[in-house]
Amino acid sequence: MAKYAYPAVFTPEENGQFSVNFPDLDSCYTCGDDLKDALFMAEDVLAYTLYDYERAGRAIPTPSKSSELPLSDGEFVNFVACDTLAYCKMHNNRAVKKTLTIPEWLNEAAVVAGINFSQALQEVLMQKLKL
Fold first, then answer.
1. Residues 19, 39: contact at Cβ < 8 Å?
2. SS3 sequence, the chain?
3. Which of 38, 56, 64, 113 is most buried, with most CB under 10 Å away?
4. C-alpha span between 23 and 6 (Å, rounded)
5. Class of residue 75 by CB neighbours under 10 A (exposed 0-12, middle 13-18, buried 19+)
């Protein structure tokens, strides 16, 4: 999981809303009630799409240069950034039960010390993964 920035094409609609399309990514588009909402929604759909790519093991495309994107009248390009790790933490935070094996002596020492096994495992995993 990583941080990304991709160009998005913003299209103003007649009703004041904006449509947003990420040309480099399959089926990555959204809309917003105004520019502020469109920017918020663009970050969300970008994070979701790239997180989905990561989980599926799909290659992450190289972002285009904004100057290479064809635009229609009124459209403009803005880069949108996202962090798929932050997105994952926010949207995929349910607990998962894991079974593990440790030596009996280590279990006894940890119980006597009052160590929370779940918390200890989480801390070590985050340290090893540099998260």
1. no
2. CCEEEEEEEEEECCCCCEEEECCCCCCCEEEECCHHHHHHHHHHHHHHHHHHHHHHCCCCCCCCCHHHCCCCCCCEEEEEEEEHHHHHHHHCCCCCCCCCCCCHHHHHHHHHHCCCHHHHHHHHHHHHCCC
3. 38
4. 9
5. middle
pLDDT tier for residue 18 given thresholds of 50, 70 and 90: very high
Does 1 score more than 70 pLDDT?
A: no
Amino acid occupying residue 55: R
Per residue in 37-79, pLDDT tens?
999 999 999 999 999 999 999 999 999 999 999 999 999 999 9
Residue 108, C-beta contacts closer than 8 angstroms, at least 6 positions apart = none
